[in-house]
Design goal:
Layout: E1 9-23, H1 26-38, E2 52-66, E3 70-75, H2 81-89, E4 96-101, E5 105-108, H3 121-131, H4 136-150, H5 165-178, E6 183-187, H6 195-210, E7 214-218, H7 222-228, E8 231-236, E9 239-244, H8 246-257, H9 276-281, E10 284-287, E11 296-298, E12 303-311, E13 318-319, E14 324-333, H10 335-345, E15 351-359, E16 364-369, E17 384-392, E18 399-410, E19 415-429, E20 445-449
Parallel strand pairs: 3-7, 3-8, 5-6, 6-7, 13-19
Antiparallel strand pairs: 1-2, 1-4, 8-9, 10-12, 11-19, 12-14, 14-17, 15-16, 15-18, 17-20, 18-19
Helix pairs in contact: 3-4, 3-5, 4-5
Length: 450
Amino acid sequence: MAIAPDAEVVIRVSDLGKRYRIFDGPRARFKQMVKSSLGFPRDVDGAPSKYYKEFWALRGVNFELRRGEVLGILGQNGSGKSTLLQMLVGTLTPTKGTVETNGKVAALLELGAGFNPEFTGRENVSINCAIAGLSEQEIESRFKSIVDFADIGDFIDRPVRTYSSGMYVRLAFSAALGVDPDILIIDEALAVGDARFQNKCFNRLEELKKRGVTILFVTHDVAAIKSFCTRAMVLDHGQPTFAGGPMESVVKYYEAMFPGADGSGAQARPGGGVSDETASQRREVSINPEEMPQLRTFGLGGGLIEKMEISGLKAGNVFSGGDDVELKIYAKWSSKHALQLASEKKIIPNILIGFALSDLRGMYLFGCHLFDKAVMLDATSLESAAAVFKFKLPHLASGSYFVTAAISLGTQENHVQLKWYDAVLELSCVSPQKYSYGLLHLPDYSATVV
C-alpha cells in the first residue's frame, strides 16, 4: 500500500503485527493441515482444532514518519526489532495491520541478506541496484562511487563468500546508498564495520538526513540514538512500550533492560517512569556475587564478598554524571587462613576491600580500595566488615559500565587476591549532553568501614 506521492508522510504503520504458529512436531503440523483442508474449524467436542501455539513476535505497532526524520528502534534481543524492519521492507508479510510507504526504499538488514555468495561483489551490486529499479545506465554511472565508498579494492571482482564480515557490510552499505533512496532502513549491520568505516557511514547518514531522506535503524548504541535520531521507539517482548524523544527513549530502554531496582533481587523488572517519585522509590540495588555462577572470578581463596549494595541511582541501574552514590561491600574472611597466607607471602595481614569501574570494552576508568584512604583492617582480629565508598559519579558517555569488586590481603604495593569478582554489576549511563567525551577527571571519594 502506498501513501499519496505528494504527502509529507513517507511511512505510515498501522496496528502492525506478526504471528507465528509453533507446532510440537511434524505430526501436529500434518493434522492441522488436514483439518484445515477439509474445512473442519472445530473438533467433534466443540474444542478449537488448533494443534499449535501462537507466538506474536510483534503486535500493536503504530507510527508515522515524515521526510528527513530519523527513527531509532531500541530493545533487548528478541523484542521484535528485526521483525519490524523486515515487514517494513517487505521480506515478511504482516499477520495484521498495514505498512504504507511513499518513495524508494533501500535496506541493509542482517549480514548476508540480499547478496549471492557465489557472485562477485560487482555482480551483486548490479543485481541489487537493478532490483531497486535503476536502469543499466544509472547503475553504470553510480558504480564507481559505490565501489569507492566500499573501499574493498580488487575484492570487488571476487565472490563475496571470500569476504570478511567487515568487507561484506562495506559493500552492502555502499550498494544501499547507491540507489539514492527516499527511505533507508538499517538493522544493526554497521556494528560489524571498523571504527573508521562506522564514522564514514554516520557522516554519510548525516548528509542523507539533511537531504530529506527518512531513516530507520535498529541499534544497541544509545550514543548513536541520542546524537543522530530525531525520535526513538522502545520494543519489549514484541510490543512498543515507549515512543518519543531520543533521551527519554534511552532511559525507558535501560529501565526495561536492567533489573533489581526495587531491592527484590537481581531478576526483578523495574517499571514506571523516571519521575521524582519513581526515583525516590528506586534508590538501591542489592546483589550477592556468590549467587552469580556466571561471573568470572579468581583468587587464592580464604575470603569472599557476601553482598554489594549501591544507592543513589536514578531508576533501575541507570545513572547520570554528577549523581552522588554510595557503594557498600560486605566481605568476610578466615583470620587463620589470612595469617598463614601473610606469612607465606611475606605481606602485612591487612584486608583490602575495593572496587573498579570499567567500560564496555573492559577499560579501567577509576576505582578505590580501603588502603587508598588509609583505612586498615587487621585480618587476624576481625573476620568480616562492610566497606562504604561514597563518591560523585563522573560525566561519562552514554552506554554500559561494569563494577568489579575484590577482597585482597596486604597493601597497595604488595598484596594477593583472595577473591576477585569481574564485572559483578552492570550500570548504564544516560548522559544529558548530545556528545560526551568520557572521563575528564577522577572523582573524589571517601572510604569507611562499618
